[in-house]
C-alpha cells in the first residue's frame, strides 16, 4: 500500500489524528475507537489503540492528550526522530518500523512498554532503553547493527522473550546465533525462530567461559544487593536508635578482650550458664529492637502530620495575603492614574497622603496576617514538641527498664559463676579437680586472687557495656528531639524574618513610587 505525500499529509496534526480514529471506527465499529466515535465527541484521552501507518508522517507530534493509549502503530512513514511520546505512559506496544530513524531515543517515559518494533530503519547502536524494564519483544531487523558486542546491551532486560536482528550486518557473523544463545540463556525466539535446546547446548559448550563469567556476575550482583539491603537496614535501625540490637552483638561485645573469661567458660557448668545468659540477653535486645522500630514509625507519623499541618497553614495565609495584595494593587493602579492627571498641588498632596494611608493600612494588614500565622505555627510547633517529648520520654523509660533487666541478668550470671568458681577453687585445694579439665583452666584455678579479680573485672566490664549502650541510646534519641524542634523553630524564624522583610521592601517600593510622582509634579 502506497500513498503520495504532500506537505499536508506530513503534518501530524489534530485533523490527521481524528481522521485516523474515524477510519479505525469504520473498519471495526465494535472496536473501542468505534465506541468513542459513536459518542460523537472524540476524546483523545479515551483512545487505547491508534494506527497511523502509511501516512507520510515526518514528525511525531500532538499526542500529548492520548494518555490512555496502549498500542501505537507509526510504521511505514518518513519519521527521522523518536520524539513526542513523553505523555504516553501507558503504552505497551510501539511500532516504528519502516521509517528513517537513525538513533534510539525519546523512550524514557514508556516504562510499561513490552513490544518495540524498530525494524527497517537506519539504527547502528542499541542504546537509551534503560527505563524499558518490562520489554519482552524487541524487533530491530534490517538496520545497521554491526558488532556482536552491540547486542549485549540487551542483557539488562530480564523479561526479554523474543529478539529479531535479521538483516543487520551482525546477523551475518559466523557465531551470531550461538553468541546470542549463550549470552541470552532465557531468550526463546531469535529472528522469528525458536532457540531449541540443541542450539542452546552447542552455545553453552562453545561459550562455556561466558556462562562462567555470567555466574560470577550474578554472584557479584547478588552480593551487592545483599550489601545494599544490609546498609539500608542498618540505616533504618540507626534512625530508630536500635542498630545492632537485633542479635547477640551487645552480648558478644561484653566478653571481648577478656582471656580469663574465655578460660572460665571452659568449665562445663559455666558454659551452660553462659549459653542461657546469651539467650536471655538476645530476647531482651530483640524486644528492644522491635519496640524501637515501632517507635520510629510513630515519630515519623507525628512529624509528617506536623509538616502537613504547617504547610496547610502557610498556604492558607499566603492565599489570604495574595487576595489582600490583589485588591490593593487594583485600587492602587486607579489611584496612580488619577494622581498623574492632577495638576493642583494642594489636591495632589491630599491624594498622596491618602495613598500613603492606604499603603500603611496594607502594611498593617499584611503584618497582622503574618503575626496570626506566627501565633498559629507556634501552637503547632509546641504541640509537636509536647507529643514528641512524650514519645521520647516513654521510649526512654522503656529502654531503661529493659537495660535494667539486662543488668539483673548479668548480676545473676556473675553470682552463679562466682559460686562455681569458689567450688572449683575448693576442689583444686583438695586436689579433687576433674582430670579432663583443660590445663589452662587448671592453671587459672591455682591462684584464687587471679580468679576473683577476673570475675570482678569481667562483671564491671559487662555492666559498663550495658550502661554504655543504654546511655548512647537515650542520649541520641533526646538529642534528635532537641535538634528536630530547634531545626523547625530556626526554619520558621527565618521564614518569618524573610516575610517581614518582603513586606517592608514592597511597602518602601510603593512609597518611593509616590515620592517620584510628587517630585515630577513639582
Q: Can you characterise this structure?
A:
The protein has helices at residues 7-10, 14-27, 32-38, 148-151, 176-183, 197-206, 208-239, 249-254, 259-264, 268-341, 345-429, 439-444, 448-521; strands at 49-51, 71-73, 93-95, 115-117, 137-139, 162-164, 189-190, 193-194. It is mainly α. It has two domains: 7-219, Leucine-rich repeat, LRR (right-handed beta-alpha superhelix) (Alpha-Beta Horseshoe); 249-418 and 450-521, no CATH class. The termini are far apart. The mean pLDDT is 87.
Secondary-structure-derived class: mainly alpha
The helicity comes to: 55-70%
Major sheet, described briefly? 8 strands, mixed
**Strand-residue proportion:** under 5%
Record the strand order, biggest sheet: 1-2-3-4-5-6-7-8
Stretches where pLDDT is under 50 for at least 5 consecutive residues are none
Report the radius of gyration as a whole number of Å.
Answer: 39 Å
Shape: flat
Order of helices and strands: HHHEEEEEHEHEEHHHHHHHH
Amino acid at each position: 500500500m502506497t500513498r503520495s505525500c504532500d506537505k499536508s499529509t506530513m503534518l501530524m496534526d489534530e485533523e490527521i489524528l481524528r481522521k485516523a480514529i474515524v477510519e479505525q471506527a469504520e473498519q471495526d465499529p465494535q472496536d473501542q475507537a468505534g465506541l468513542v466515535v459513536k459518542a460523537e465527541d472524540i476524546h483523545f484521552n479515551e483512545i487505547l489503540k491508534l494506527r497511523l501507518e502509511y501516512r507520510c508522517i515526518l514528525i511525531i507530534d500532538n499526542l500529548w492528550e492520548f494518555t490512555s493509549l496502549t498500542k501505537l502503530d507509526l510504521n511505514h512513514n518518513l519519521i527521522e526522530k523518536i520524539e513526542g511520546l513523553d505523555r504516553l505512559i501507558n503504552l505497551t506496544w510501539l511500532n516504528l518500523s519502516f521509517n528513517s530513524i537513525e538513533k534510539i531515543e525519546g523512550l524514557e517515559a514508556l516504562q510499561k512498554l513490552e513490544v518495540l518494533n524498530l525494524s527497517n530503519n537506519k539504527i547502528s547502536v542499541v542504546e537509551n532503553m534503560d527505563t524499558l524494564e518490562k520489554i519482552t519483544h524487541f524487533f530491530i531487523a534490517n538496520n545497521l547493527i554491526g558488532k556482536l558486542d552491540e547486542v549485549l546491551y540487551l542483557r539488562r532486560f530480564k523479561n526479554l522473550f523474543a529478539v529479531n536482528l535479521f538483516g543487520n550486518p551482525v546477523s551475518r557473523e559466523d557465531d551470531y546465533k550461538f553468541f546470542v544463545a549463550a549470552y541470552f540463556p532465557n531468550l526463546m525466539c531469535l529472528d522469528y525462530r525458536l532457540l531449541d535446546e540443541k542450539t542452546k547446548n552447542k552455545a553453552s559448550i562453545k561459550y562455556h567461559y561466558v556462562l562462567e563469567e555470567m555466574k560470577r556476575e550474578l554472584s557479584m550482583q547478588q552480593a551487592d544487593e545483599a550489601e545494599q539491603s544490609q546498609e539500608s537496614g542498618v540505616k533504618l535501625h540507626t534512625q530508630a536508635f536500635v542498630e545492632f540490637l537485633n542479635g547477640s552483638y551487645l552480648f558478644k561485645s561484653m566478653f571481648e578482650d577478656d582471656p580469663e573469661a574465655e578460660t572460665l567458660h571452659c568449665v562445663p557448668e559455666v558454659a551452660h550458664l553462659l549459653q542461657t545468659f546469651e539467650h536471655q540477653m538476645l530476647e531482651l535486645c530483640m524486644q528492644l529492637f522491635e519496640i524501637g522500630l515501632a517507635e520510629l514509625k510513630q515519630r515519623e507519623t507525628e512529624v509528617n502530620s506536623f509538616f502537613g499541618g504547617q504547610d496547610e497553614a502557610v498556604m492558607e495565609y499566603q492565599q489570604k495575603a495574595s487576595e489582600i495584595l490583589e485588591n490593593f494593587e487594583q485600587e492602587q493602579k486607579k489611584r496612580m492614574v488619577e494622581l498623574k492627571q492632577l495638576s493642583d498641588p494642594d489636591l495632589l498632596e491630599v491624594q498622596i497622603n491618602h495613598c500613603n494611608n492606604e499603603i500603611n493600612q496594607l502594611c498593617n494588614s499584611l503584618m497582622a496576617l503574618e503575626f496570626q500565622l506566627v501565633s498559629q505555627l507556634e501552637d503547632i510547633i509546641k504541640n509537636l514538641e509536647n507529643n514528641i517529648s512524650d514519645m521520647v520520654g516513654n521510649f526512654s523509660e522503656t529502654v531503661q527498664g529493659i537495660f535494667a533487666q539486662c543488668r539483673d541478668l548479668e548480676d545473676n550470671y556473675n553470682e552463679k559463676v562466682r559460686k562455681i568458681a569458689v567450688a572449683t577453687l575448693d576442689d583444686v585445694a583438695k586436689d579433687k579437680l576433674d582430670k579432663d579439665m583443660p590445663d589452662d583452666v587448671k592453671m587459672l584455678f591455682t591462684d584464687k586472687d587471679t580468679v576473683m579479680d577476673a570475675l570482678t573485672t569481667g562483671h564491671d566490664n559487662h555492666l559498663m557495656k550495658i550502661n554504655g549502650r543504654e546511655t548512647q541510646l537515650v542520649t541520641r534519641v533526646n538529642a534528635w528531639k532537641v535538634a528536630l524542634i530547634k531545626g523547625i523553630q530556626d526554619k520558621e524564624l527565618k521564614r518569618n524574618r524573610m516575610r517581614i522583610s518582603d513586606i517592608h521592601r514592597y511597602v518602601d517600593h510603593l512609597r518611593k513610587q509616590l515620592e517620584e510622582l510628587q517630585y515630577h509634579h513639582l
